[in-house]
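Journal club prep — side note

Before the paper discussion, L.F. wants everyone to see what a predicted structure for a comparable chain looks like in token form. Sequence:
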Amino acid sequence: MEFQGASFQNLGNWLLRLAKLDLSVFDDVKDEVAATLPAITVVLAASFLAGLGSWLWWIQQDFGPGVDSKTFEVFFKSLILGGIFQSALWFLWVYVAAMVLSRGFRASADINQMVRTMGLAFAPMAISVLMVIRVLTVPFGVIGIAATLLLSHVAIQATTTAESRQVVLANAVGFVVFAIVLGILANISEVYNFGGLAPGLFFFNLNP
């Protein structure tokens, strides 16, 4: 327990280094077994913050009579369920990327190391909470996703001997699966045909 607690104490330092673009942090985290739970915590926190951003965006909108009755529904679907689904799909992203590397390219791919490094790399998704700023909703949503995707490439590269282009492809395939399923969830149990069971920018159904 003390060992795990120390890793949570280190989490702040790891995130600060990441914010400073000290990408060597991934080399330190990958072999830190006790960093697994803190890394997963980052994914959960970032996912729920993304859901918070889309929910706060919603409560600012004026969709006419009855919109207030939908506020809790959006809170539950985008923030609670959306945060849970996105976190679960992140594991699928990691798994798919690992399988592409190990089975597709026959490269080394330690999925436990990838969970630790890619978990930390998921932190920028928390930027999506700034979607509450109405005039910058889309930019902040895109920035959060793009930064997460880019850092995930570096995170994977730190754990494998695969070539950079192979890492790009593995990461892209994992992300595409992640994004497609979230896109499908955005069309499920929609509120006003606007969005469904997904957080942040993924909440929105762009094809009503």
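L.F.'s comment for the group: The two ends are 49 Å apart (CA to CA). Keep this in mind when we get to the figures.
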